[in-house]
């Protein structure tokens, strides 16, 4: 079972910073997950939210700011004084670090901001530039973006996210496994509340791997191991690693 650090080891260092990804690697994560957005001047940066208010000393939308402006903000002090003056990472910096650290799986969630296929092209170009196509996975809640990614570079894995909101009805009328199979997606990434043994078996029978988010309860690990879950996305890679090692 792979352990993927959600926005890095984000309970130990500011989320989506190089420090958080370094900490995840120290904690023996098999891979990391991050979120990519585009600045006003077309640079790719790592941030989950569309605005910077929650994770910096600034405010405003990333798509409305130039990269130079973003570098003026502190993306670490909100988490703790030891991270004062931490900069927002660019995708270049992140991929360079992941290549240096030889990370097993690099999960890049697309935050499209209505840019659609353009962000896929930009991200894939960067992944190729660093020679990481074989280790990268592009994930999204948008199946169309994943289809385009697979068409553009079949070596890069695709992970289909589906959420907990508005999902009860959707899960009854929409077969996620068959959708993934039809589109040649590599991973299903369901919210943990929609995971069960039947789903895992169906996915595996169709050649699809399953990796739920965000799994922070060690009491789930025994059950997931029994079901044959392929990996988990977690905020606590160290705790989950220790639990897996104890099985």
- Put simply, the count of helices is 10
Separation, N- and C-terminal Cα atoms: 11 Å
Query: What would the principal axes of the Cα set say about the shape?
Result: globular
Count of extended strands: 9
Average pLDDT over all residues = 94
H-E string: EHEEHHEHEHEHHEHEHEH
Q: Which residues form runs of ≥5 with pLDDT under 50?
A: none
Number of domains: 1
User: Radius of gyration in whole Å, from Cα?
Assistant: 18 Å
* Sheet with the most strands, sense and barrel status: 9 strands, mixed
What amount of the residues lies in strands?
Answer: 15-25%
SS-derived structural category: alpha/beta
| Helical coverage, percent range | 25-40%
**Overall CATH architecture:** Alpha-Beta Barrel
Name of the CATH first level: Alpha Beta
Could you say what the CATH topology is called?
TIM Barrel
The CATH fourth-level homologous superfamily: Phosphatidylinositol (PI) phosphodiesterase
Secondary structure elements and their pairing?
Layout lengths: L1 E5 L11 H9 L4 E8 L5 E3 L20 H4 L20 H11 L3 E6 L6 H13 L6 E5 L2 H10 L4 E6 L4 H7 L2 H7 L4 E4 L6 H9 L3 E2 L10 H7 L3 E4 L2 H10 L1
Parallel strand pairs: 1-2, 1-9, 2-4, 4-5, 5-6, 6-7, 7-8
Antiparallel strand pairs: 2-3
Structure commentary:
This protein is an alpha/beta fold and 247 residues long. It has one domain (2-37, 102-246): TIM Barrel. It has ten helices and nine strands. Strands 1, 2, 3, 4, 5, 6, 7, 8 and 9 form a nine-stranded mixed β-sheet that branches. Helix 1 (18-26) runs parallel beside helix 3 (91-101). The N and C termini lie close together (11 Å). The relative contact order is 0.14.
């Amino acid at each position: 079972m792979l352990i993927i650090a959600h926005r890095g080891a984000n309970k130990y260092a500011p989320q989506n910073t190089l420090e958080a990804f370094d900490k995840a690697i120290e904690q023996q994560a098999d891979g990391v997950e991050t979120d990519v957005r585009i600045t006003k001047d077309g640079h790719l940066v790592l941030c989950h939210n569309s605005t910077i208010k929650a994770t910096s000393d600034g405010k405003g939308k990333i798509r409305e700011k130039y990269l130079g402006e973003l570098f003026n903000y502190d993306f670490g002090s909100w988490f703790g004084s030891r991270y004062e003056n931490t900069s927002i990472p660019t995708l270049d910096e992140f991929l360079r670090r992941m290549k240096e650290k030889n990370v097993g799986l690099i999960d890049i969630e697309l935050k499209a901001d209505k840019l659609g296929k353009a962000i896929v092209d930009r991200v894939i170009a960067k992944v190729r530039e660093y020679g990481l196509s074989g280790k990268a996975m592009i994930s999204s809640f948008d199946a169309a973006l994943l289809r385009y990614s697979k068409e553009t570079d079949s070596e890069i894995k695709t992970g289909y996210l589906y959420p907990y909101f508005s999902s009860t009805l959707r899960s009854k009328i929409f077969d996620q496994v068959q959708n993934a199979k039809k589109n040649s997606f590599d991973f299903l990434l369901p919210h943990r509340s929609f995971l069960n043994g039947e789903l895992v078996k169906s996915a595996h029978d169709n050649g699809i791997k399953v990796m739920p988010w965000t799994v922070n309860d060690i009491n789930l690990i025994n059950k997931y191991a029994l079901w044959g879950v392929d990996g988990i996305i977690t905020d606590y890679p160290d705790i989950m690693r220790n639990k897996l090692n104890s099985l």
